[in-house]
Write a structure and sequence with these properties.
three-stranded antiparallel β-sheet; Arc Repressor Mutant, subunit A; about 40% helix; 11 helices; alpha+beta; four-stranded mixed β-sheet
């Protein structure tokens, strides 16, 4: 590269740095653009501060409850209205966080069920389904984000919901129902899932369900969910949609609950051992 070109590019780089960089003003600038988060890399690129000075500024902002660290190098800006709690609703930054982590995702399980009107209380933790490999859960005294891994999913089973900071990816009611059963062992068992599923039934479309279940390709989940629709919730159309997928194939006899004993009556239609109390 010609020497003159190097000098010109260096000058452009230096001029791109704010000579009088103000950390607080930059946070205000970010918020004025409708964003709620910032990364350490961005601060290094936009300021003329040393790494140590940036770390000190971040520390002061965290102490003054202006910033909260979510993941190493990723922070959310705490507006005055959230200063007392010191925590920001996850939906305001989750899309940016997953972009920072370079992972595809969707809001799922109880977290998506609530957005579809199922459940009467806000869940204490946020549940995200991500591509493999797994990520370490995020947990502190004010925040808990649980990651559930999956090999892949179909974008037809994901919808985008608008938030004050953009859009977030959310599983459809049909995929949410299947996921609740598929991950039931990890989220507290079938009994914890039942009241949420009952509320969710009103949002599930039988035609969409059969397509989503075909893409889901997990027979045991279809057996369990179909049994619940059929025998517990009396949702005949939803049960029929799932039964079409297994009526002409061989299925293994499975337990309704993966965390209960092996004892119980067998439902021959769905080939399921009812090994847990389904009253709730």
């Amino acid at each position: 590269m010609h020497f003159t070109t190097i000098i010109v590019e260096l000058c452009v780089y230096i001029m791109s740095k704010d000579k009088y960089f103000s950390f607080d003003k930059y946070l205000q600038k970010i918020r004025s653009k409708g964003r709620y988060c910032i990364t350490l890399t961005e601060l290094q690129e936009k300021s003329n501060l040393s790494y140590k000075a940036i770390q000190q500024s971040v520390y002061r902002a965290k102490t003054n409850k202006k910033l909260s660290q979510i993941r190493q190098g990723f922070y959310v800006i705490i507006p005055p209205e959230y200063s007392i709690s010191g925590v920001l609703p996850v939906y305001l930054y989750i899309d940016d966080l997953m972009l920072y982590l370079k992972r595809d995702y969707y809001l799922g399980l109880f977290s998506s069920a609530i957005l579809h009107g199922a459940g009467h209380q806000q869940a204490m933790n946020t549940q995200l389904v991500i591509e493999k490999p797994t990520l370490r859960n995020i947990k502190n005294d004010k925040l808990e984000i649980d990651f559930f891994t999956k090999q892949k999913w179909n974008e037809n089973d994901i919808i985008k919901k608008k938030s004050d900071a953009g859009y977030i990816k959310v599983s459809t009611p049909e995929l949410t129902a299947l996921d609740l059963i598929y991950y039931h062992k990890r989220i507290g068992g079938i009994n914890r899932v039942l009241p949420i599923l009952e509320d969710l039934c009103e949002e599930i479309n039988s035609k969409k369900l059969i397509k989503t279940a075909q893409r889901f390709k997990n027979k045991t989940t279809i057996q369990r969910l179909g049994f619940l629709f059929d025998e517990i919730f009396d949702e005949n159309e939803l049960a029929k949609s799932l039964y079409k997928l297994i009526e002409n194939i061989n299925t293994n006899k499975i337990l309704l609950s993966s965390i209960s004993s092996n004892n119980g009556k067998t439902n021959k239609k769905w080939n399921i051992i009812i090994n847990t109390d389904t009253n709730y």
